Task: inverse folding
């Protein structure tokens, strides 16, 4: 790569990418295009194949099938050190025997670049570490090490920067700070960032496109708000944030779809229903639900969907209050309420009505089962009556 | 009672350390003895003769130098051969891994007298002349295993992501080895070499079988034990002990200083 | 010397990916393994063949290839006391070493704090002084008119009235010489124990003895196995301690092999004894490792 020439940044394209470890398919026929200059997050639980995908893009893992393209160039056969791709490794993998300066200069030196000194200086300025250039990595805090790892990769002006759980080792406060920092750096350099994480909040805060990955495949891909507001699978509804899901049957089609379940009717716009058949799972996010005392039911807009039940738990969490409400058919509905209301909140044992707008309702295909995307241990605990 | 219970282990630990150092104290103290008769076994009077004329007894210093020479050559070869094996074991997949492991484990599980006598049997059958070469062959053989174990441990403790990071940062396989792998494994290799040297320098049993007429430092001491060990031997051994201790302690001090400077930041 | 590496769980997938199948491996292995094959395995075969040689009829004192199995029976018939004594002394020394090494290793692993690395240096340091000279120094320490012997004598604890030139001195010397080989593996496995496990044991109403028996001891077993092997094997083959500290009644099998090989030049007998020693030790080691369930030690 010639220096000082502004390159046209190109799209990263994965075509039918597959990785098989023995019997299991870690990555299953993955095809996506990541637009140049975007901040792309691959979100999924551990073992979903997101890190393997990243390693195949980096050239650290050979795909079993499929190709990796940058622009029109097939880089599948290139070795890791020949690819215009750099990685920020999980736990950073900073060279412990080299100081910060030499860590950052490593890639430039290997490529025989001339003005190492000026470039390293500029890069350390960008990540605000110029004063620590001669320290060893072990003498730096976690946040500083993280910035060195970013600088060490970015200085090579890669077409794509891969970030493998880059903030996983940091504490919560520092993580927030680094999220903003990384976004700033990305908008400054304009490189395509592909960010692998299991932290949904991190993915949603930072990325312009989120891809939720499960069992080697991408479940849903889109703008974070779209994916959150309109999940297309039960997995996404449960994995990305929380959802209340109620299985029912379609009664009417058309502009507005109505679903009957447990003697109640739920409406939603047809555009928000992705279930192909008569069986539909009705879903709603907890923060969309209004919790009202049964006597105040008339305060709900007439068009709202509603469920009746008894409050079994109230937890005050500062910003909001979380209610657990048991329905007559024994399901527990979770609802968040902003702590902005004046007057009394509902208490445990109260008869309440839960209401939400049809526009906040979504319809899903029940085929994968209502617990898909939930933590297995939690599911078992909750289904065990003794617990 | 409570105090005794809490400190009994510490007290035993210190007693055991004292036990370990008791003979060392004797060796050092008797280097300042002016023995009556040939045997330097009981205290007579203080003297600096052994130190001022450390080579004063014929054969002592030449055997000492012989041992150092053998140790250096042996260590060089054993370290190279053992390091190569360690790399193969940790970094590559190959057929015959378990037999390789067995072949490396066996010399450590075999009494020295068996290794010494079997090599002697080989050299006798081949009518191979005994001397420095046979000793070095023997030393390299039994030291390789120790080097493999030490370097292997170091390699296994290395995060494979460091080498991946190097490859990711445009380092060719050669450059990855040259700038990342080797510098990181080097402390392990140096440690293995120091261990190998001390094993070679102090080896008696295997050397004794394969020395022929060559006299190493331990062989000199063995011979002298029958007719009285001159205090010069004590002086030389004390010298070796103290310089080795000094090297190790200063290395420890450097590491400790480094840790402390980290902790205060 | 250790670099501070970030504590990360290296997934097997990554560890495997970093391993490449390649012919390079054989180039790395061949020089060293060839050396071990030629100068360790071949000599053992030679030793075995020598142990079956017969004395030449035409020129007595020379030995020719043969299949003289009686070399073994004759040698064992003559030297079985030394054989048994070797294993007895080595076993006693290993037991004593374990007994005194365990508290030391335990102290270094759990109680030494900042003194830990210094204490480890002190455990290794005696090896920097000549093995022979240290053993010889015990002659001074245990001398008949020395303080140790006279103290024990005044307590009437010594059957022979002396230590030097008795089996006690030989066992003491063996215990001393191989003690670091016991301490280091013990320390290594104790150091790996999460001290919170011991605290949890205490918290769950275990008395100190119970916690030791049920938690500490089982977790330190790999170190115990490694340490006892590293002590027992060299002790069983040693002849220096018996030569310098014992009398002619305390000779071990090492002394017999040594004198037969180097002084009497009775190569078949010496080889037979040497080979028998190795076989016995090997069988003991393998069954010991198998029984203690620590095969991955190898």
Result:
């Amino acid at each position: 790569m010639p220096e000082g020439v502004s390159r046209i940044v190109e799209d990263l394209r994965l075509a039918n990418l597959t990785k098989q470890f023995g019997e299991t398919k870690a990555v299953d026929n993955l095809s996506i295009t990541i637009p140049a200059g975007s901040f792309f997050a691959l979100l999924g639980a551990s073992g979903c194949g997101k890190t393997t995908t990243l390693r195949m893009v980096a050239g650290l893992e050979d795909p079993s099938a499929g190709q990796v393209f940058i622009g029109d160039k097939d880089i599948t056969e290139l070795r890791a050190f020949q690819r215009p791709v750099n990685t920020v490794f999980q736990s950073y993998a900073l060279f412990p025997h080299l100081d910060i300066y030499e860590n950052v200069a490593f890639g430039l030196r290997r490529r025989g670049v001339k003005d190492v000194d000026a470039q390293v200086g500029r890069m350390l300025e960008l990540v605000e570490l110029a004063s620590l250039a001669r320290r060893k990595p072990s003498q730096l805090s976690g946040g500083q090490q993280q910035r060195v790892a970013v600088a060490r990769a970015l200085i090579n002006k890669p077409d794509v920067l891969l970030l493998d759980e880059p903030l996983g080792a940091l504490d919560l406060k520092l993580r927030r700070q680094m999220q903003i920092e990384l976004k700033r750096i990305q908008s400054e350099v304009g490189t395509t960032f592909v960010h692998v994480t299991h932290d949904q909040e991190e993915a949603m805060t930072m990325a312009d496109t989120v891809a939720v990955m499960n069992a080697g495949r991408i479940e849903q891909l889109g703008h974070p708000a779209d994916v959150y507001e309109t999940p297309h699978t039960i997995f996404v509804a449960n994995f990305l944030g929380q959802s209340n899901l109620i299985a029912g049957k379609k009664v009417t089609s058309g502009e507005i779809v109505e679903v009957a379940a447990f003697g109640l009717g739920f409406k939603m716009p047809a555009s928000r229903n992705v279930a192909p058949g008569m069986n539909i799972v009705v879903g709603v996010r907890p923060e969309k639900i209004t919790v009202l005392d049964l006597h105040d039911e008339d305060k709900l807009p007439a068009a709202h969907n509603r469920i009746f039940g008894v409050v079994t738990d109230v937890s005050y969490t500062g910003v909001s209050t979380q209610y657990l409400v048991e329905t007559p058919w024994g399901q527990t509905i979770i609802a968040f309420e902003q702590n902005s209301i004046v007057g009394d909140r509902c208490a445990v044992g109260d008869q309440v009505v839960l209401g939400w707008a049809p526009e906040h309702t979504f319809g899903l295909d029940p085929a994968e089962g209502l617990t898909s995307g939930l933590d297995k241990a939690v599911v078992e605990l909750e289904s065990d009556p003794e617990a | 009672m409570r105090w005794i219970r809490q400190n009994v282990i510490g007290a035993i630990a210190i007693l055991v350390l004292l036990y370990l150092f008791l003979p060392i104290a004797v060796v050092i103290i008797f280097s300042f003895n002016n023995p009556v008769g040939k045997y330097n076994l009981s205290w007579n009077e203080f003297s600096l003769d052994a130190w001022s004329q450390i080579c004063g007894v014929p054969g002592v210093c030449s055997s000492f130098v012989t041992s150092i020479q053998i140790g250096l050559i042996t260590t060089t070869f054993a370290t190279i051969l053992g390091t190569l094996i360690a790399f193969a074991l940790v970094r590559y997949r190959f057929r015959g891994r378990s037999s390789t492991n067995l072949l490396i484990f066996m010399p450590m599980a075999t009494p020295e007298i068996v290794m010494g006598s079997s090599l002697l049997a080989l050299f006798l059958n081949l009518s191979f002349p005994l001397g420095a070469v046979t000793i070095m062959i023997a030393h390299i053989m039994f030291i390789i295993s120790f080097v493999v174990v030490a370097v292997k441990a170091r390699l296994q403790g290395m995060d494979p992501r460091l080498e991946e990071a190097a490859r990711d940062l445009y380092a060719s396989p050669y450059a990855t080895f040259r700038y990342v792998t080797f510098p990181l494994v080097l402390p392990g290799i140096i440690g293995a070499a120091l261990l190998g040297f001390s094993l070679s320098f102090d080896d008696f049993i295997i050397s004794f079988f394969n020395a022929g007429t060559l006299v190493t430092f331990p062989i000199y001491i063995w011979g002298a034990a029958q007719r009285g060990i001159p205090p010069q031997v004590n002086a030389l051994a004390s010298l070796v002990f103290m310089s080795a201790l000094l090297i190790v302690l200063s290395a420890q001090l450097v590491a400790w200083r480094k840790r402390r400077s980290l902790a205060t930041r | 010397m250790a670099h501070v590496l970030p504590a990360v769980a290296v997934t097997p997938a990554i560890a495997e990916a970093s391993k490449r199948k390649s012919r390079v491996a054989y180039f790395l292995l061949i020089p060293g393994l060839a050396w071990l094959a030629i100068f360790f395995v071949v000599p053992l075969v030679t030793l075995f063949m020598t142990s079956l040689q017969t004395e030449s009829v035409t020129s007595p004192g020379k030995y020719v290839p043969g299949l003289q199995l009686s070399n073994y029976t004759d040698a064992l018939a003559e030297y079985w006391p030394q054989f048994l004594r070797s294993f007895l002394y080595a076993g006693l020394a290993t037991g004593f070493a374990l007994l005194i090494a365990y508290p030391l290793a335990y102290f270094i692993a759990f109680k030494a704090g900042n003194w830990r690395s210094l204490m480890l240096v002190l455990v290794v340091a005696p090896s920097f002084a000549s093995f022979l000279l240290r053993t010889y120094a015990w002659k001074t320490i245990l001398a008949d008119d020395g303080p140790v012997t006279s103290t024990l004598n005044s307590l009437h604890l010594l059957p022979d009235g002396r230590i030097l030139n008795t089996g006690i001195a030989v066992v003491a010397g063996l215990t001393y010489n191989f003690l670091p080989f016991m301490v280091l593996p013990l320390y290594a496995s104790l150091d790996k124990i999460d001290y919170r496990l011991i605290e949890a044991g205490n918290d769950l109403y275990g008395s100190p003895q119970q916690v030791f028996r049920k938690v500490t001891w089982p977790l330190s077993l790999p170190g115990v196995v490694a340490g006892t092997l590293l002590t027992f094997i060299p002790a069983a083959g040693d002849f220096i301690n018996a030569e310098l500290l014992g009398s002619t009644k305390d000779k071990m099998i090492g002394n017999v092999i040594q004198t037969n090989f180097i002084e009497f030049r009775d190569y078949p007998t010496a080889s037979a004894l040497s080979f028998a020693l190795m076989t016995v030790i090997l069988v003991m080691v393998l069954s010991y490792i198998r029984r203690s369930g620590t095969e991955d030690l190898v």
Notes: Chain B has two domains: 58-229, 236-265. The longest strand of chain B covers residues 92-93. Residues 236-265 of chain B form one domain. Strands of chain B lie at 92-93.
